[in-house]
Amino acid sequence: MGIxxxxxxxxxxxxxxxxxxxxxxxxxxxxxxFGYPGxxxxxxxxxxVDTSIRHVLVRHEQGAGHMAEGYAHATGKPGVCVVTxxxxxxxxxxxxADAYLDSVPMVCITGQVALPSIGTDAFQxxxxxxxxRSITKHNYLVTKxxxxxxxxxEAFHLATSGRPGPVLVDIPKNITAHNNPDSYFDxxxxxxxxxxxxxxxxxxTEESIAxxxxxxxAAERPVLYVGGGVLKARGAxxxxxxxxxxxxxxxxTLMARGAFPDSHELNLGMPGMHGNYTATTAIQKxxxxxxxxxxxxxxxxxxxxxxxxDAKVIHVDIDPAEHGxxxxxxxxxxxxxxxxxxxxxxxxxxxxCESHDDWRTTVAKWQADYPLVYxxxxxxxxxxxQYVIERLRDLSPPDTIVxxxxxxxxxxxxxxxxxDHPYTWINSGGLGTMGFGIxxxxxxxxxxxxxxxxxxxxxxxxxxxxxxxxxxxxxxxxVKVALINNAYLGMVRxxxxxxxxxxxxxxxxxxxxxxxxxxxESMGCAAFRVxxxxxxxxxxxxxxxxxxxxxxxxxxxxxxxxxxxxxxAGGSNDNVILHPSQDQExx
Length: 587
Fold this sequence. Notes:
Helix content is 35%, strand content 16%. The protein folds into three domains: 14-186, 3-Layer(aba) Sandwich (Rossmann fold), CATH 3.40.50; 206-369, Rossmann fold (3-Layer(aba) Sandwich), CATH 3.40.50; 385-556, 3-Layer(aba) Sandwich (Rossmann fold). Helix 1 packs parallel to helix 7 (148-160) and helix 15 (385-395) packs parallel to helix 22.
């Protein structure tokens, strides 16, 4: 393809590939993109100067991907990131894999070397579509400028329909270059997309709903096992109606916290490896498990053969591949969770469910006997992280959006924050990505600027992506970070203490290197350090009052504190390890 330095397009409707990328994003209603320029994507950055779309300049491409995820989690809209080729593309592999496992709608646009250079090991070339094929819902390598609008329209459709997920569009530099005649074409944007073979099943069959209704009305010990699919389907309101209609207790997985209000009398909390005793045991003792938008993840099931062994299973999920993958259901309902629940509610209104009074009494006794507990720290000791999270929870607005990294702090946040609003808990579930919290918080705040956004982070996670606080300062995105600083890789330390004879191998960071306050201040943040319980409330109130820049609080927390309850990896959920202060008898 020839390059003509003084090329001028013919016709008023002619635009180049770079302009087409931005106009396509505008056509999709995109409000913000997270990105980082570089050689192969450079032509696309020129028309960004003239668009109304906000561009957030990140400090690392991984941050762009996680910000797009945070935006999508908080708003329900697809997140968008734009980066260049080669190492930039490989830097977004982690966010793409994270979004793929957690079903997050995201469109990632990457630059690629010019078409004639592909396969020559050109500067900053890599096989982006090959690398990301297994961690995207779909990906594209565009070879003609005129295909850009259609491809981007398809990408957004794929990312947001059916089971959501990330879609990548790889665009060679030469078909976006302003001085390449072959980059120009008559602008259009498709009114719809045609993807033969891609037909996600939204409406569940009447037969499957009728079978599900029969099982629900006959069940004596039912449990609604709710996963992130309910949130993706925007089904939180109808979930309440379904649970109340038949008086069914609800457990919400790590990805579904907030899908059902924690304050509701039917909410049992989070089940699984670090779930509470009642939620985990209710599943084990149930006679009917209604799996709603959940995928029987190993963190929930423990030993699969022992998981809810006596329960019949209704599995509702939009992805046919999930049905029977881990647990063979008695009734398989393929379809959108919200639509399926609406159909179940309609069917149940004319039926009478079995009384669940005895079941509710049993569950209530477990709740009374085995609550979440921790021992309050005395003055002069390092803080207990659970106490810090409870105070953050009680002193922040009830609709605060909470993000987390991965580790002990993530589990404590999921356990001790009360989520009464959907779409307020954002974390990395399937991939377990350390460093997710800060950039995800920035993305969430960019999408929901009027909401308070707290990132509950660990010292290990903080050191992975803290540079994005520079982004937050420069872009005036005032997120707040509660650093649960226990001087260790806490979850690894916990397992080494319990299962490796206290042989603490390569897990200690120390409290003072780096100096988190100085580091945060150097990035434009307000920063505080708290070591005493008596100081906690005052500093949290100060942080909540600061809305013109990011805030970081270094909470000095006890290194030895562990997350309880817990189930050992691969162990049966019948064997829940409680806090040492609790009576282990009767389990």
